[in-house]
Structure prediction request, 547 residues.
Amino acid sequence: MFTDFYRSFYYGFLIIAAAISLLYFKKVDKTFRWLCLLIILTLISELTAYYISQHHTKPNNIVYHIFTPVEYFMYAMIYKMFFDDKKWTKILSTSIAFLIGAEILNTFFFQSLEEDPTNIMIAESVLLVFLSLRLFINIRQTPVYENILNEGVFWFNSAVLFYYSFDILVWGLHHIKVYLLKDPPIIIYSINLLFSGFLYIVYAASILLNYSSLNKIARKG
Amino acid sequence: MNEHSQINSRDVIVFLFAGIMVLGLLFGYIMYFLFSYRHKQKDYRLLQSQKEEIDNQKILLEKTLEELKAAQSQLILRERMASLGELTTGIAHEIQNPLNFVNNFSDVNKELVEELQMELNTGNIAEALSISNDIKENEEKINLHGKRADAIVKGMLQHSRTTAGQKEPTDINTLADEYLRLSYHGFRTKDKSFNATLLTDFDESLEEINIVPQEIGRLLLNLFNNAFYTVIEKMKLKGDAYEPTISISTRKLNNYVQIKIRDNGMGVPQKIADKIFQPFFTTKPTGQGTGLGLSLSYDIIKVHGGTIDLLTEEGVYTEFIIQLPI
Prediction:
């Protein structure tokens, strides 16, 4: 199915993360259930994109045009629960509306359904980096966790910060330029695939950590 | 193609360099976060333990406050009972009058009934009818004075009631007059030789105003009792040359009713004039005053949305000016 190592690495970790998401969906708290859904939905979208690329002559970019706003919606729901604040619910709702609007405008005027929606991906990445940094500030303001390294929220947020900062670099600084090249440097995509694989496996780990934290709390009574 | 390849490799180098920079920065940020989190956690734990301590203190304070409120309620009740005690002699005097009427008229009626029976036996119907009319008139008087006694008892019960009463249209002139007499008779019962001049100047144009009558009654009683107390004290000092006078006047002003209660007693020294409305402040000897009378009066006025002011000159007079909104 996936011939090269990087692709196999990414899809392999994504499948493992999706399996963990399915198994632990009911055992984690509401915030992490949204993360489980996000991972499962990512797998579905990747499989759909792969199926289109294999069975249709048209490019599979349409999947990413649809999936990017949906993915951001999922992240926004996760952050909404982490922030648990009316002001942030409003900000997140506005940002969802903004991203959907931007996606429509981008499709009509800049990047059609046959191109990658990199503009939207960049916008999504910027928003997520911002949310991630903000959540770190919030966590620091109320340091309630006994050991932050054992908390799913820390690893999830770190993964978001690392991955989407790197994503801005990939899609923002060079992808647009590389995309135009006849012989694009494959290493950029390979690194991106590696990072994506790590992202989902860290997500899976954060789900397991959340389950473990809930178990500890339950045991303490 | 060659040109493309050159751009390609340079881009890759830039990309990798930028990527390493970004990763380095992020790693640095995460390290900083972890370090500052640990640091903040210590402060937070300290803060939490302080918060717990404050919460415990708060619970303790709330408990103390509850106890204080209970004690305060108890004191207020005691004050009411004390004023009721002072009222009792006045009430006894007030009830005595209608009771005398009831007893006298019932005695008269008893004799009239005997006469009526005699007239009926002799067949003198005209005289019998005349006697029966007299009996009827006497019965009406008995009924009237019975109702008067009933009203006094009801007033007394209202005075001792612990729950807050409802506002109702009340004739402030009647209420003031009634409590002035009750207070006066109360003092006269204690000391038969005590006589004071009571001056009333009621504004007859005053309509009924919405107040809680038992509360305002309690307030008036407090002020009258203080007035009688101070004139008695002055009488002890000045002797027969002194003529104790208590006056009350009511006036309808723009949007409120003004009640003035004045006595020519000892007056209030300026240095304590500001303190007289404070709870537990009293100039009376130990055991004679709770120090809550004027404080409760002040609260009653506040609840009614009114004001109470003091005008005084030491050794000359004391005047309380009450204003109640209509």
